[in-house]
Amino acid sequence: MLRQRRFEEENYHAIFNNGKTLRFAIDPSKPILPLRYPEIEDWAINTICLANCSWCYVSALKTGINFDNVVEKIQDYFGIISLNHRPTQIAIGGAGEPTMHPDFPEILKTTYDLQIMPNYTTNAMHLSDRVVDATIKYSGGAAISCHPHLKKVWTKGINILTEAGINTCLHIILGEPGSNDEFWRIYDSTKNIHYYVVLPYQAAGRAKKIDAEKEWDLFFKEALIRKPDDVSFGALFYDYFLRNRDIMAKLNMSQRCFRDTVFLMILINCLENQAMTYHQNLMIKHYEQFSSRRQSIFFKFI
Ligand code: SF4
Which of the listed residues 45, 47, 49, 173 should we mutate to test ligand 1's pocket, taking the one with most ligand atoms within 8 A of CB? Predict the structure, then answer.
């Protein structure tokens, strides 16, 4: 999928090509301003999930629901706005397990037909042939959440998706005691993963408040030794990074770290075409600028 978006007022021009976005300032002497129409959106199509994670920040339940008429709602809302104003990519998840929605394949197709690249997060419990086929045809990729109590499930899910040639990311939540060790265990024992996405534990929904930063500190200590080039970080690490700028600088976070992981709403907006040439401080400045307003909208198709 090839798209271009241009907003003169925001000094912004972007070219999106199959998951990668290059951004340019129309007037290079001025910054790109926060966009009113973001490149990436989060969509929620249901609130049901059978995984029963005690740390679920959206409190998804097996008694949750699938929203009605999502295909029509997508067509009604996005079909009437100009292509320039439509996002280039969306991430489906965010409130429930998206693959449990009976219209999930049709939702992927409808979104793709509107020239919006759909991606999604899944617990891998329901990767049917129908879901996998639609993912191959219409999706930019999928991220599997590696919840410890579902290890067998996500291990099988990784095989299904990677063998189908699907861009597969892994989401690993960092914060509970032992989660740093678990991250590196997963990192060292899996292959053909597009990106390992480290997500900071959030005390929201069912998740109790814990001291998550101990594990974050351990993680970044190890990351500074290993310097992996296929690990990305969730947008909610933003405040942590601002308090620990040396980590960003030492990790040389750059194009490879942030490039096209669709699930990181904020971080990816700062870089790609710029990171390789800009000094770290300038990069952080851009990061702050873009992060001051989240470049993401959360749609619930209720
Ligand atoms: S898999 Fe995700 S949505 Fe489902 S209960 Fe666990 S954290 Fe919540």
Answer: 49
CATH number of the structural domain 2-32+39-300: 3.20.20
**Total Cβ atoms within 10 A of residue 72:** 13
Is 117 close to ligand 1, i.e. is its CB under 6 Å away? no
- How sure is the predictor about 62, in pLDDT bands with cuts at 50, 70 and 90? very high
Q: What is the DSSP letter of 237?
A: G
- Give the integer Cα–Cα distance in Å for 118 and 124: 17
Residue 215 near ligand 1, beta carbon < 6 Å: no
- Binned at pLDDT 50, 70 and 90, residue 173 comes out as very high
Ligand 1 contacts CB of residue 145 (under 6 A): yes
CB of 60 within 6 A of ligand 1: the answer is yes
41: helix, coil or strand?
A: strand
Ligand 1 atom at minimum distance from 52 CA: 5
pTM score of the predicted model: 0.84
**Mean predicted confidence (pLDDT) in 226-233:** 84
Q: Where are the domains of the chain?
A: 2-32+39-300
Question: What is each CA distance from 7 to 10, 17, 24, 37, in whole angstroms?
Answer: 5, 18, 11, 9
> Is pLDDT at 281 greater than 60 in this prediction?
no
Q: Whose CA is nearest to atom 7 of ligand 1?
A: 56
**CA–CA distances in Å: residue 292 to residues 89, 225, 295:** 21, 31, 9
Helices (H), the chain: 70-78, 104-113, 129-138, 151-163, 179-189, 213-226, 238-243, 245-250, 255-258, 280-291
Closest CA to 134 of 171, 166, 163: 166
116 in Cβ contact with 90 (< 8 Å): yes
Per-residue pLDDT for 108 more than 70?
A: yes
